[in-house]
Amino acid sequence: MVALTQLVVVLDGTIVNIALPEAQADLGLTDVERQWVVTAYALAFGALLLLGGRIADYWGRKRSFIVGMIGFGIASAYGGLIGTGVELIVARGLQGVFAALMAPAALAILTTTFPSGRERNTAFAVFGSVAGAGAAVGLVLGGVLTEFFSWRWCLLVNVPVVLIAMVAAIYLLRESKAEGDNKYDFLGTVLVALGLGSLVYGFTLAEHGWDSLSAWAFLGAGAVLLALFFYSQARVAQPLLPLRVIANRVRGGSLLLQMVSGSVMIGMMLYLTFHLQIVLGFSPLLAGLASLPMTIVISIVAPIATMLLPRIGPKVLMVVGPLISAAGMVWLSGLSSTGNYWTEILPGLVLLGVGMAMLFVPMQNLALLGVEPHDAGAASAANTAAMQIGGSIGLGIYTALYTAGSATGTGLDAFVSGYSAVFIGTAVALLIGSIIAATFIRGSKEELMPMSNTPEKALHLG
C-alpha cells in the first residue's frame, strides 16, 4: 500500500507530460501555461515536503497519510473535470500540496513499521524499485490513457487508486507519532518553503536558457534562504529538520545519491521520450511502451539485489550500480536519426535498469538508517525532497546540454546531437554518484545493516 502511494506520487510527475499536447489543444493553453502545468506540481511538492514531514511526526503519520490521500484524490478529480487552463494549473498545485503531506507520511510509516532486519531490507527494496520505475510507468500509462481515452484520465486515474489505498490504510495501519511537547518551527517552515520553491522555480526557468536573469535571481534567493534555514535549524529547540538527520555520513551520502538518481531518471526519461516521438515517430502509447523494458529489468533485478544485500553489503551495490547505469547512458548517447530502437536504445535501457535496481535497493534504506522515531517524518521528507530537487537541478543542466548539443547540427540530426549530449551528461552524473557512494558509504556490513536498527548502532558511522 505504501509502495502504491509512492508510485502515484512519482508517476504523477510524468504521466501528464505525454498528455500535455492534447490538454493544450483542448483547453487553449499558451506555452507558458503548459509549462506551469508541470511546474505547479513540482513547486508545491518540493516547497512543502519538510513541513509535511513534521506534520506527520507531530499530528500522526496514519492521520496525515489518509488526509493527504483524500486531498490528492479530490485535487486529481478536480483537475480531470476542469474547463480552463488556470483551473488545471491550480489543480496540479493542489496535488503537489497534498503529495507533500502524503509522501513523507508513507515513508515514515515504512520506517517505523520495519525498524530492522530482513523485512526492512525487503520493504525498502520494493519501495525503492517502485520509486525508480514510477517515471517510466507514468509515461506508459499516460500514453495508454491519452491515446485510447482522454488526457483527463491521466488525472482521474488517481481517484480509484486513492480510494483503495485509503480504505486499506484505515484498516491496516496503526497510528504513530512523535511523543513529547512538539512545537512547529514556523520560521524554518517559511525559510525552507520559500528557499526550495525558489530553487525549483529557478531551475525551471533555467530550462529555457541559463542567460535568464530571472532564473539566476531565483536560484540566488533560494541559496540564501536555504543557508538561513540551516543556520536557524541549529538554534531552535525543535527544528523542522534536525541537523542530526543529515549530518550522519552514511545518511548524507545516501541523500546525495538520491539527488543524482532523481536527476538521471527524470532527465533521461524526458529526453528519451522526445527522441522516440520526434525522431523515431512513435505514438504516445508506443513511446511509453518503448520505455517499459527498463521497468521490467528493475523488477527482475531488484529481488536478486535484495538477496545479495546481506551477503555483500550495500556499498558494493551502490558503487557498481551507477557504473553499470552510466554504461547504459553512454550506449544511449550513440543514437542516430537513421538508427533503430532495438540496437540503439533497448540495450542501454537494459543496462540502466540493472544498475538502477542495484542502487535503489539499499539507497532508501540507508537514507533512513538509525533515524530516531521522533524524526521519521522529517527524515522521510528530506529523502523525498532530495529526489525532487535533484530532478529540478538535473532538468536545468540537461536542458542547457541539449541546447548546446543541438546547435551543432541541422534537422533531425540537431535533435539527436542534443539528446546525445544529455545522455552523456547523465552518465557523468552517475559516475559522480558512484564516487559519492565510495566516499560516503563507510562502515562494515554489520554496521550498515544492523539487525537492530537503533540510532545508537548507526550514530558512530557519521
Entry summary:
By secondary structure, this protein is an all-alpha fold.
Could you give the topology of this structure?
Layout: H1 2-11, H2 15-27, H3 31-59, H4 61-81, H5 85-113, H6 117-148, H7 153-156, H8 158-172, H9 186-206, H10 213-233, H11 243-247, H12 249-279, H13 284-290, H14 292-312, H15 314-332, H16 341-344, H17 346-367, H18 376-406, H19 411-440, H20 445-448, H21 455-459
What does this structure look like?
The relative contact order is 0.14. Mean pLDDT is 81; it is low at 451-462. The radius of gyration is 21 Å and the shape is globular. The protein folds into 2 domains: 2-174 and 240-459, MFS general substrate transporter like domains (Growth Hormone, Chain: A); 185-239. It is built from 21 helices and no strands. The longest helix has 32 residues, at 117-148. The chain has helices spanning 2-11, 15-27, 31-59, 61-81, 85-113, 117-148, 153-156, 158-172, 186-206, 213-233, 243-247, 249-279, 284-290, 292-312, 314-332, 341-344, 346-367, 376-406, 411-440, 445-448, 455-459. α1 packs antiparallel against α5 and α6 packs across α17 (346-367). The two termini are 32 Å apart. The protein is mostly helical. 81% of the residues lie in helices and 0% in strands.
Mean pLDDT across the residues is: 81
Shape: globular
Measured distance between first and last alpha carbons: 32 Å
Fraction of residues in helices? over 70%
The major sheet is characterized as: none
GO cellular component, one term: plasma membrane
Protein name: MFS transporter
Organism: Mycetocola zhujimingii
Membrane topology: Multi-pass membrane protein
